[in-house]
Each structure stands twice: as structure tokens, then as C-alpha cells.
Amino acid sequence: MHVRIRDVTTLSDDWYLLKKTTFDYRRRDGSWQTMSRETYDRGHGAVILLYNLARRTVVLVRQFRFPAFGYGGRHDGYLIEAPAGLLDAASPEERIRAEVAEETGFHVEHVQRIFDAFMSPGSVTERLHFFVAEYEATHRIDGGGGVAAEGEDIEVLELGIDTALAMIADGRIEDGKTIMLLQHAALHLFPRR
Ligand SMILES: Nc1nc2c(ncn2[C@@H]2O[C@H](COP(=O)(O)OP(=O)(O)O[C@H]3O[C@H](CO)[C@@H](O)[C@H](O)[C@@H]3O)[C@@H](O)[C@H]2O)c(=O)[nH]1
Ligand SMILES: [Mg+2]
Fold this sequence. Notes:
Radius of gyration: 19 Å
Strand content: 35-45%
Number of strands: 10
Protein name: GDP-mannose pyrophosphatase
Distance between the termini: 51 Å
Family: Belongs to the Nudix hydrolase family. NudK subfamily.
Subunit structure: Homodimer.
Number of helices: 4
Bound molecules: guanosine-5'-diphosphate-alpha-D-mannose, magnesium ion
Largest sheet: 7 strands, mixed
Keywords: Hydrolase, Magnesium, Metal-binding
Structural class: alpha+beta
CATH topology of the largest domain: Nucleoside Triphosphate Pyrophosphohydrolase
Shape: globular
Order of helices and strands: EEEEEHEEHEEEHH
CATH architecture of the largest domain: Alpha-Beta Complex
Oligomer: single chain
CATH class of the largest domain: Alpha Beta
């Protein structure tokens, strides 16, 4: 084993959990080194891109993100993202279908898992499960918008894939998971023009 845990301290246990762990790590040359790292544990998550090949469109959401608002006072905090949510106890497939319905009003049956990724492995424990699903206009049962009582105030956007890709280049889309999904869609889902 290359890790021996020495001590774990809870620094904060409020909405999510922030811990500091002191451990011995066996370096590649075989010597042991003691270090400590803080980890922020907010569970794991899932994210999905809804796409329609005939219309060359995708469904994204726009919402206020307080941590982004802080950025040097230069950001209004509104981010355009693919619909996403935390897993709680559910399976990723189950959770993402419920989440996309809640946030966008689109009810999709078949979702395809494409890959998993650590989004910020220097400090955040979360692993994010990535999905895509084809959608039709008739799959929209209601307006979505998220759970107002939990502070969600979600605007639903249906954009052309080419417009969405241009929005990455000009900085209007700057959320990591969303950029990964749009680039996946451009590479593997939509036929090149
Ligand atoms: N009271 C309170 N509420 C919080 C706090 N932090 C988050 N919430 C609320 O917890 C809910 C979480 O909503 P989800 O839709 O389940 O999660 P998400 O925030 O969209 O997370 C998704 O995106 C993240 C950012 O990319 C991902 O990290 C995550 O895995 C997931 O995909 C939201 O209502 C949010 O306002 C907090 O500190 N206090
Ligand atoms: Mg969400």
C-alpha cells in the first residue's frame, strides 16, 4: 500500500464536509513522506446533454452560481451549464433522469453513459458521471425550472450546437462539464458539416 492514514480532522461539517487528513505517502523511490491534505466532500454527481440530431440542437440551463459570482467581483454569477445534480442515494441513471426533468421539463427514457471524471481532484472528492440522451420537442412535459424552495431559479435554453460551440470560444459558456459534453457532441454525435 502506498498510503497510511495517520489522522483525520473535520474542519467543517455543515451543508457538505471539509476534512483535513494527515497521511504517509510512499514516494516512487520507496521513501515515506508525511503530508496533509484538505478534501471537500459533497458526494458524487451526474450531468447530461440532451441533443436532437435533425434540428442540430442541445438543451442547456442558465442559473446563478454564488461561487462564480465571487470571482474578483467581475462576474454576475450566471452560468450556462448542462443540467446536473448530486446523486444522493440514487443510481446515476435514475438520478440524472429525475434531475433533467426537474430542471428542464424534458422527460427522457433512454440515457447513455459516456464517461466519468474527477472535476477538481486536488481538493474535491467528487466524481461526475456524464450522460447524453436524444430528445424530441414532445418530451417536454412542463417548464422545468428546478425547485424554487431550494433556491433554484433555472432558465431553459435550446441552442444550436454550432452556436453553443461558438459560445465556448467567446467565453459565454465557461463551465467545465458543459464544455466537455459539447465537445463530445461535436466529435461523436453530430455529423460534421
Ligand atoms: N442551503 C444550502 N443549499 C445549498 C448549498 N450548496 C448547494 N445547495 C443547494 O443544493 C442543491 C443542489 O442542486 P443539484 O441540482 O442537485 O446540484 P448542482 O448544484 O446542480 O450540482 C451539479 O453541478 C455541480 C457543479 O458543476 C457538480 O459539482 C455536481 O456534481 C452536479 O453535477 C441546490 O438547490 C443548491 O442551491 C449550501 O451550502 N447551502
Ligand atoms: Mg443542478
